[in-house]
Amino acid sequence: MKAIEISRPGAPDVLTLVDRADPVPGAGEVLIRVTASGINRPDVLQRMGAYPPPPGASDLPGLEVAGVIVSGDAEAMAAAGLSVGQRVCALTPGGGYAELCVTPAVQCLPVPDGLSDIEAASLPETCFTVWSNVFMRAGLQAGETLLIQGGTSGIGVTAIQMAKALGAAVIATAGSDAKCQACLDLGADHAINYRTADFAEEARRLTAGRGVDVILDMVAGDYIAREVAALAEDGRLVVIAVQGGVKAQFDAGLVLRRRLTITGSTLRPRSVDFKGAVARALRERVWPLIAAGRIRPVLYSVLPAASAAQAHALMESNQHVGKIVLRWTPEAAGA
Hints:
Blueprint: E1 2-6, E2 15-19, E3 29-38, H1 41-47, E4 64-72, H2 74-79, E5 87-91, E6 100-104, E7 108-110, H3 117-120, H4 124-137, E8 145-148, H5 154-165, E9 169-174, H6 177-185, E10 190-193, H7 199-206, E11 212-217, H8 223-230, E12 231-239, H9 252-258, E13 261-264, H10 272-291, E14 299-304, H11 308-317, E15 323-327, H12 330-333
Parallel strand pairs: 8-9, 8-11, 9-10, 11-12, 12-13, 14-15
Antiparallel strand pairs: 1-2, 3-4, 3-6, 3-15, 4-5, 5-7
Helix pairs in contact: 4-5, 4-10, 7-8
C-alpha cells in the first residue's frame, strides 16, 4: 500500500510518500480501504516528535479515516453492527495516512446518510473528542452555556454545532472578525475576537455577570486564570490541549467559592472499551443529527494524499476554518 511516513521529526516536509506492507487486522479489528484521512493537531505534534504513538499503534500518523471495510474479525464486526463492504468512518490509534488502515471494530461508525467519504473522514476525531469531554466529562446540559476557545478549529466547529443541536447556548472565541462571523454562521450565539477583547470579561457581560457553565479549552497557559474567572457557580473547565503552555496560575479562592471543576483529558491513550462506549453514544445521539443536517461537516481544504506536507503547513498557519482532509485515490496518492 501507499502511506505517508514521518521520515524524521521536523517540519512538514519530513512527511514522505512510501510503500508499506499491507497491515493485517487482529482480534477485534477491521481492515479499512481508506478513501480519505482527516488531519488533526495531534498529527502535527507526532510529526514534530512531541506526541509518540501509544504502544502497539502504527508509527504512521493519522487518527481518523473513512472508507470501506475489506476484512476483519467477523465476531467483532457482528457485535458492532458492521459488515464487509460497508462504508464507515473510524477513529484509529494511528496509521490513518495510508491506503489501508487497521482499527478496532468498535471505533467504527457508519458513514451518515447523505455524506461523502471525504466529509465523513472529518468527523471521528472531533466528534469523539467533543462528546467525551463536553458531554461526558463536563456534563453539559440543555439550557447551559458553553464557551469554546478556538471556535473555527476542527474541534471548535464540531463543538458549536453539537452543543447548539443539543440545546445549549454557545459563546465562541476566534482570532479575527471574519472567523468570529464564521462561528456565528455555524450557530454560535456570540463570538468574541480574543485579539481585541478580553474573553473573560465579555463572557461575563454576555451572561449578565453570571458566567458560563462549561469551557472547552485548547490553550491552557495563562488562559486558565481568566477561564476560572469566567465560570459560573458549579462551572466546569475542560482542558484538551496546551498550545499556550503547561503551567498556569489562577485564583484558587474562586474555585472554592464557586465550587468549580478543572479537568482535562487526552483521547488517544484511552482504552478501546472507552472509545467504543463513545462510539455507541455518538451513533445514538449525534449521528441522527448529522443525517438530519443539524450538524454538518465543515471542510476547509481537501488535498491529495501526496500533499500531506502542504496540509500540515496549512494547519500550522491557523488560516483554516474547519477541517483539512487528504483524499486517497491512485492519482491522489501519487500526485
